[in-house]
Amino acid sequence: MIDFYSWNTANGRKISIMLEEMKIPYRYHPININNGEQLTDAFLKINPNGKIPAIIDSDGPDGEPITIIESGAILIYLANKVSSELLPENPKQQTQVLEWLMFQMGGVGPNFGQALHFYKYAKERIDYGVQRYMSEVHRLCLVMDNWLQNRDYFAEHYSIADISIYPWLARWEWLDLNWEQYPNLYHWFQLVSQREAVKRGLKVLA
Predict the structure, then answer these.
(1) How far is residue 79's CA from residue 42's CA, in Å, rounded to a whole number?
(2) Which of 8, 18, 119, 182 is most enclosed, with most CB atoms within 10 A?
(3) Could you read off the pLDDT of 136-167 as tens digits, one per residue?
(4) For residue 12, what is the domain's CATH number?
(5) Are 167 and 14 in contact (CB under 8 A)?
(6) Last residue within a domain, chosen from 86, 108, 142
(7) Residues 117, 58: one domain?
(8) Do residue 25 and residue 100 come from a single domain?
(9) DSSP assignment of 16-61, as one string?
């Protein structure tokens, strides 16, 4: 059984979608980050960094419980727990999946997150912050759009790379993204949105 600690964020949605895709039994424990629950002593024992998501697998390696933090690490762990095409064993295919997973972790996540902060949440508008991060969001969307030309997914098949990127694009209306500028990315977004496990995963944290 997986104990899943999270809230309705892009990083949290990655894991709820992954759990639904893998059909792994889990219990969801909401950690209300708006109320600071991620900074309580109880949660800091799970993740000393005070960030969601986190999981505890009661049936970890060698049958011992294991705690995993960081959404990318959790995706890799879950894909390896039950052999899955979401992280192919073929070295070439696996490398491509991990490339785009790292692209999300190092590019999409941080920059979309900062763009959302300055564009939507900041109490005072700071033009430099808005322009800096919205420009980077646009650049990253163009990178993804160009890559997805004549491709359905970021790797050869649907994978944890797609799962990691999708929740950030699912906030497209918060950033006023214009899909007409990214037709290939929009095609990909529609394909992923239609998956039943994705719909269930989003609903878990709604």
Answers:
(1) 27
(2) 18
(3) 999 999 999 999 999 999 999 999 999 999 99
(4) 3.40.30.10
(5) yes
(6) 86
(7) no
(8) no
(9) HHHHHHHT--EEEEE--GGGTGGGSHHHHTT-TT--S-EEEETT-G
Report CA dihedral (48, 49, 53, 58) to the nearest 10 degrees. Answer: -20
User: Encoding tokens for residue 28?
Assistant: 């969801």
> At residue 136, what is the residue type?
E
Q: What is the pLDDT of residues 12-56, one digit of tens each?
A: 999 999 999 999 999 999 999 999 999 999 999 999 999 999 999
Number of domain units in the chain: 2
Strands (DSSP E) found in 47-167:
54-57, 66-69
- The upper half-sphere exposure of residue 174, i.e. CA atoms within 13 Å in the direction of its Cβ, equals 18
DSSP symbol at 4 = E
User: Do residues 24 and 81 make contact, with C-beta atoms less than 8 angstroms apart?
Assistant: yes
Assess if residue 206 is contained within a domain. no
Flag whether 205 is in a domain.
Answer: no
- The boundaries of the domain holding residue 66 are 2-86
State the residue for tokens 């070439």. 92
Give 57-94 pLDDT, tens digit per residue. Answer: 999 998 999 999 999 999 999 999 987 899 999 999 99
Please tell me whether residues 142 and 53 are part of one structural domain: no
> For a pLDDT cut of 70, what percent of the chain falls above it?
100
